[in-house]
Amino acid sequence: MTVQIHYQAPLGWELKSIASFVENYKGGASLTPDDFRESGFPVIPKKGVQEGGWLVIDEPTYCSESFAESNAQSKVDSNHVVVTLRDLVPSGPSIGLAVRIQQGLEFILSQGTYGLEINEFMNPDYFCALSNSQPYRKAMRRIMVGSTQVHIRTGEFLDQKFACPSMAEQNKIAEILSAWDKSIEATERLLENSKKRKKALMQQLLTGKKRLPGFKQPWSTTKLSTLCEIRRGASPRPISDPSYFSDSGRGWVRISDVTSDETPFFRKTSQYLSPLGESKSVKVNDGDLIMSICATIGVPKFVKIPACIHDGFVVFRNPSDSLSLNLLYYVIQFITDKLDGEGQPGTQRNLNTSIVGEIQFPKITTEEQEMIAEIFKLADSSIGAINERLKSLRKEKDALMQQLLTGKKRVFTSEAI
Question: Which end of the chain, C or N, has fewer beta carbons within 10 A?
């Protein structure tokens, strides 16, 4: 089934099938769990194909060198464009996306991914950008089949036709988008470096390796349980009983609610408890500090709305004069990985109040505590500003890309002079 674009092709553009500019293609190798190694020859997982045009592999995957040699037909390098025609997610958000491989790298394809050799009639970078365009994504969604594991048949993928400009205009569009990519990449590096600087600062200021000027009190720590009350949340049972819920009232804090907000604050929830539900849970109010202790462990949030927490959270109550909740927020943030490692095994890892109470907190004046917290707040403010700039750049590039790749916005080339 061939799906064509649904707008008038711009002057000088022509319909091209994907097959017309694919010289050759390679399929993925059949990897079993026994074929994977902790090191060896790198494998491209399907989730490595993401929006943006370049291969993104956060967690490297490897197979043995011998497997790679016996599956040379699935090897790809920078001469290939990689696409995925299979997705475990029912909506298939990444299916059909095309990405480049950086120079000097070589991979084995996993099943569901393909390596395309692009001929002289298509700029590979332009094709990768095209795969992120709205007409292309719409075409991919229309030819997807399957439910639990959606996929696209190779023949139907190659048959798809899109309006494409001349090579000169393709090259110019790819050049423009590459400039945006470089700006985005520079901002991403700035963001990563800012996060690293904050982490290094926390390592110094939260361990006593570095003290603020004017504070000479000997550095020591004390158990958190000596500084505040640690109260675990509670859930009304059975949780499926609709009488515990309402369309308004106190918010019912879910893990997804606290992880969806990048700020230190919890401001909204998707569910609310009825008065009966509230009576069987634990109330929290504006200014309270809570922390997740189940599944996603160690996420601290300052509550900004009347709410209730279930037993996947704790709230820190009645802080002594020797405890700054502002600094406690950053102490928790600093030791999140350590807390996750201390979680009790089970269907979901979790902490109890005793483990939380063992957290070591700096035994220094509250004045120094607040000053340290303020330094971290400034670092967060800088990180937040960079993150917002990055979001803006990505949004602006995407808007420009949709115009350039549909011909709504044209570029001048030497051919047009």
Answer: C
